[in-house]
Amino acid sequence: MAGLEVRDVVVRYGGTTAVDGVSLAVAPGEVVALLGPSGCGKSSLLRAVAGLEPLARGTVAYEGADLAGVPVHRRRFGLMFQDGQLFPHRDVGRNVAYGLETQPLSRAERDARVTELLTLVGLAGYERRAVPTLSGGEQQRVALARALAPRPRLLLLDEPLSALDRQLRERLANEVRAALVETGTTAVFVTHDHAEAAVVADRVAVMDRGRLLQVAAPDELRSAPASDRVAEFLGLRG
């Protein structure tokens, strides 16, 4: 299978094992959520896939090619984090265009791509808006547009909605899902919120204490949890 393949990955920080022998495959165009409580290893696994954390053991491959030794900027993966990490000195349009500036595109082609993506995330006409004037939800929409702009092979999203209030998170989860499906983007989405994971993902990978407990479609996960720990985390058991 093409796409992302994680095989027996271990990530350690000193004497602490954060990711303990995880294997996971993500098909082209699929969205998989890494779900679990704080400290379960989901963000460490995401960072290992991105190349931001070294592997103590195992392999990360994409389209059949082992990524060992491939630096972050050469993996052609997009990254989106909780705070969005927008450039406050750039307006919205120039933030979205940032990843396009090293590509062989004309100014007209860059502008067209920016317009396309701002429309996709519900911010048509925001090109000249200053980032500090935007709400938290608007900033995360801009961050999503920026991450999608270079057409990444894989988009890695680390708790991108966790800083927002519940109502806004629910709305944006649907919008993130729609944007990923519309663009056919392969993605891994880290969250501690099982309702959010069910909205965004085709499959959900439940983690706890560095291990992968179950990988299944959201409906299957709720109807047939693989263990008491999975059921407890999903709120299906007291």
UniProtKB/TrEMBL annotation:
Principal EC category: translocase
GO molecular function ontology, one term from the record: ABC-type quaternary ammonium compound transporting activity
Pfam families membership: ABC_tran
Matches recorded under InterPro entries: AAA+_ATPase, ABC_SmlMolc_Importer, ABC_transporter-like_ATP-bd, ABC_transporter-like_CS, P-loop_NTPase
Record keywords: ATP-binding, Nucleotide-binding, Transport
Span of domain ABC transporter: 4-234
SUPFAM superfamilies associated with the record: P-loop containing nucleoside triphosphate hydrolases (SSF52540)
Keyword set includes ATP-binding: yes
Domain of life, per lineage: Bacteria
EC number in record: 7.6.2.9
Keyword Ligase: no
Coiled coil residues, start to end: none
Protein name: ABC-type quaternary amine transporter
Organism: Promicromonospora thailandica
Taxonomic path: Bacteria, Bacillati, Actinomycetota, Actinomycetes, Micrococcales
